[in-house]
Structure formats: structure tokens, C-alpha cells
Design goal:
This protein has 119 residues and is α+β, with helices and mostly antiparallel strands. The chain has four helices and five strands; from the N terminus they run βαββααβαβ.
């Protein structure tokens, strides 16, 4: 079994905030890539109508998730929650109690590994 934690977060872009999306997500991607070696996958996708945004994230383990969440809270959380309204947050993998508690405010649902592989 893998220690990898990953998630899919689907968000609605708040009214009047569309112009703030790209600057924020570009800054977040740059910071995560630069400062978080435990972040394995970090990608944002925008719907064709510009009303929703989905982020795919994958971390090497629970410790890497907590590094990310600490950085997110210190640098980006206020702007992020002004721009985005989380609507669906599915977390996959062996999230520990600390990670579960940290993600609870976003309405995260947790899913345990059942079968499969990755290359």
C-alpha cells in the first residue's frame, strides 16, 4: 500500500472574481513547485464557461500534505476563499487524523485504497 495522499477539489468561482483566478493559481503553482518537494502533482483546470475550477493534487505522504496546508494557510487561504467556493472535495489514500482534521473545514470526504496500481 502507498503512503500517497491525493485529492480532487471542485470549486465554484465566486461572482466578480474571475479576473483574480489566474494570478492566484499561477502564484500558488509556482510556490508549491518551488517550496514543496513532497508535492508530486499539482494542477488546476478551468471549465469552458469559466464558472468552475478543479484542482488535482498528489503528495508523497501525510507530512507533505501538512507542509502544503501550512504554506497554503500562511500565504493563500484568505485570497483563495474570496475567489473560490469549494463544492466537492474527495481525498484518496491513508490520510491520518491530523490531515483529516486540517481538511474537515473544506467538507472533505475520504476514500480508502481498494485496488489498483500506478507507474
Amino acid at each position: 500500500m502507498s503512503d500517497i495522499i491525493e485529492w480532487v477539489l471542485e470549486m465554484r468561482i465566486q461572482d466578480g472574481q474571475a479576473h483574480n483566478v489566474q494570478p492566484l493559481i499561477s502564484e500558488m503553482v509556482d510556490a508549491t513547485q518551488r517550496d514543496e518537494p513532497g508535492a508530486l502533482h499539482y494542477e488546476y483546470f478551468l471549465s469552458e464557461d469559466g464558472r468552475t475550477c478543479t484542482v488535482l493534487e498528489r503528495y508523497v505522504d501525510n507530512a507533505a500534505v501538512m507542509v502544503h496546508l501550512t504554506n497554503f494557510g500562511a500565504k493563500f487561504a484568505d485570497r483563495f476563499l474570496t475567489i473560490f467556493a469549494p463544492e466537492r472535495f474527495a481525498v484518496f489514500g491513508p490520510a491520518d487524523a491530523q490531515v483529516r482534521e486540517a481538511l474537515a473545514g473544506f467538507g472533505a470526504t475520504h476514500h480508502a485504497f481498494a485496488a489498483g496500481f500506478h507507474r
